[in-house]
Design a protein that fits this description.
The structure is a homodimer.
Chain A lengths: L1 E6 L7 H16 L3 E6 L5 H12 L5 H8 L1 H16 L4 E4 L6 E3 L8 E4 L2 H8 L3 E5 L2 E3 L5 E3 L4 H12 L4 E6 L4 E2 L11 E2 L1 E3 H9 L7 H10 L3 E5 L7 E4 L11 E17 L4 H11 L7 E3 L6 E9 H15 L7 E14 L9 H11 L6 E5 L2 E7 L3 H11 L6
Parallel strand pairs in A: 1-2, 1-9, 2-6, 3-6, 9-13, 12-14
Antiparallel strand pairs in A: 4-5, 7-8, 10-11, 13-14, 15-17, 15-18, 16-17, 18-20, 19-20
Chain lengths: ~400, ~400
């Protein structure tokens, strides 16, 4: 059996944890499995590097930032190979150049295109554990790129797909996917199984366990994922195409607090305004999430949208540059203290009452809804960040998610 | 004019120094020159990484050590590109993969074979300063290798040769090549010029300013080197084929304290013993320096040799393994507190009195000589490390090196 195991930064933050991960991988190896390990940078190393960069040049180019960042995972994989070797198991580490982890050209938020598995297979045949840098790739210019947030998950899934792995295990600091964040909701319950689509919505919406791109990729290539804890041996949550158990109305409530709302007030109410606005943002690789456009009035209209809090300042700058110029907007408003709350469930498709039930749960505790967005299996609202805890508990209870 | 400028770890140890180096390179760039910069890892970063590795696995494989170490220079070059960019000059950083810095297969102490200059030339034509990781290369397996001590000097010279650079400037924390280490000898004098051969002997013998491989390479390809200080604008020392000024008898006195002496006592006095002994060491890439073989007696003979202090333990282990086995030696003695003192000078070739004069200088201050080795332009002795300061001053004075 070929297993891809991915461990995040906290799992390799120090010597002790590195050896823990090494032992865990060796367990699998000793069962006769072929083991491929994907690692993130140690602990807060990515932040340390980012701080160094910002100190030198707050507007450092993304190309050079990626050049800097990618050293983080390389340190992790080299140390892990040394740890396994110290435990008597042959291991070899690779970076993105060595396994030709090809991505799109863009820096800072690239997408994987192709992986050369030949070298990995050779080393697996040599009975080595193969350890690969997550998060990073190389583009057509032979420059380093990085895959953006949660990029190591994507690396793991892509490797599992390319190697036709029998399992892809994502180790995190939680032991699976919960009906809600257990830090916020006391009776949150761990799900034993969840569909790709539900996980996709949970991931996109900030459940924080898996990154959406990794779930997309897993769905596309039918890679069965297991989300498990690196700290204990509990079963975890399996993410796959169909779940056996009867579908619940709602599988979970997700919160994303890394959100900012930008409102562009008084745009000319004429065709092409929204296109132009979002085209400028897209060209700068800024992901826009919930979009709300007001009904036109007095020849003008307002457009509100959310971005990640990280992208907010850049987005505002772009909107200012173009918005005040060709788009002739009157005012730009920014709210950084907002959060996104969503309920997700494949069962929703055949049950129209979910949105209303969610709004009721928020009304019960007097929370104002700022924006609403829905999909087939999801209802999302934007609320003030300070109400998050109250809101998620009320919604969790309204859908009886704590009960088995 | 195309200039290659190399800066060591202390020159890029923190933000302020990084900007100093950036400004220095930009000065050259603004004169219309094409500038290629070679950097080492920041400050003590190589030691930090090495300590991490030793903590995890004291016997870490050299392959994984190189994988770890090479992150150091990558951090330096990325930050330098950001600094130059902050100062308004376009710059781009490259690692060994990106400029295909091909080396021999061996890890930890590899040799450069070939560099692909196409990408560098393209970026220079784009009016960018090109910043390249020193010390590192890649081998035929597409693994990282490192060039051993002083490797960044070698990278700079190799790049200067490959790019047919008009100048290769090696910036260090001293402002040139001295007749002796100014920290040890008060009236040591800076040389304005020195030949490759003299520099080669001084480098090999521990003048510590330039690494011997870099000088060898410079000689082979006729790359004129300038050794300068990164801290001031003084002229430095030019290293080239022929020096104009009248050749002095001796150009300098060099000390190497990173030396250990290993004596293998009571080997069988039969053909092939020395070959076998040193063949084993060579196969483990251990450089042996001064070798002394006693005249045979009672059917046995003794062989003493020196290695770097770093290699000593490994060398002893190898000698033990083979020496006590097939070579049937009676005893192995190790002395770690020894140093190598040498006088170097192209003028020596036509003047046989130099060795005697050096021995006299040591006799004057009552210092015992443990081993002697000579070449055409060099006399080397091994002495107790505790006598180094006294010895170098006595020799420096005997040859009147402090006088112009």
């Amino acid at each position: 059996m070929l297993v891809v195991k991915k461990f995040g930064g906290t799992s390799v933050a120090d010597k002790e944890r590195i050896f823990n991960v090494a032992r865990r991988c060796i367990e699998d190896y000793k069962k006769g499995n072929e083991v491929v390990v994907v690692l993130s940078a140690m602990g807060k190393q990515t932040d340390v590097l980012l701080d160094m960069a910002r100190d030198i040049n707050p507007k450092a180019s993304k190309r050079e930032l990626d050049m800097l960042m990618t050293t983080g995972e390389q340190v992790s994989v080299a140390l892990m190979a040394m740890a396994m070797d110290a435990l008597g198991v042959p291991a070899v580490s690779f970076n993105a150049f060595q396994v030709q982890m090809h991505t799109t050209a863009v820096y800072g938020n690239s997408r994987l295109k192709k992986i050369d598995t030949e070298r990995i297979r050779t080393e697996l045949e040599n009975k080595k554990i193969v350890i690969i840098t997550g998060f990073q790739g190389i583009n057509k210019y032979d420059d380093y790129t990085t895959l953006g947030r949660g990029g190591s998950d994507t690396t793991a899934v892509a490797l599992a797909a390319a190697l036709h792995a029998d399992a892809c295990e994502i180790y995190t600091d939680v032991d699976g996917v919960y009906t809600a964040d257990p830090r916020l909701v006391k009776d949150a319950r761990k799900l034993s199984e969840i569909t790709y689509d539900e996980m996709l919505d949970l991931a996109t919406l900030g459940a924080g366990v898996l990154h959406n791109r990794s779930v997309e990729l897993a769905k596309k290539y039918g890679v069965q994922l297991v989300v498990r804890s690196s700290l204990n041996n509990s079963e975890g949550t399996v993410v796959k195409e169909e779940v056996k158990m009867e579908k619940m109305l709602v599988s979970g409530v997700a919160v994303d607090r890394n959100v900012a709302r930008i409102s562009v007030i008084g745009l000319l109410d004429q065709p092409g305004v929204a296109f132009k606005l979002f085209n400028h943002l897209a060209r700068h690789n800024i992901n826009v999430d919930v979009i709300l456009q007001s009904v036109g009035r007095d020849g003008t209209k307002d457009i509100s949208f959310t971005t990640t809090a990280d992208d907010c300042d850049e987005a505002v700058e772009i909107v200012k540059r173009h918005g005040e110029g060709s788009l002739k907007c009157q005012k730009i408003e920014v709210e950084k203290e907002v959060a996104k709350l969503s309920v997700v469930g494949a069962g929703m498709m055949s049950n129209p009452g979910v949105a209303a039930k969610m709004f009721e749960a928020l009304y019960d505790v007097g929370i104002n809804i700022k924006m609403i967005s829905t999909s087939e299996i999801r209802v999302t609202v934007i609320i003030d960040d300070k109400h998050v805890e109250q809101a998620i508990n009320s919604v969790h209870q309204k859908f009886s998610l704590g009960e088995n």
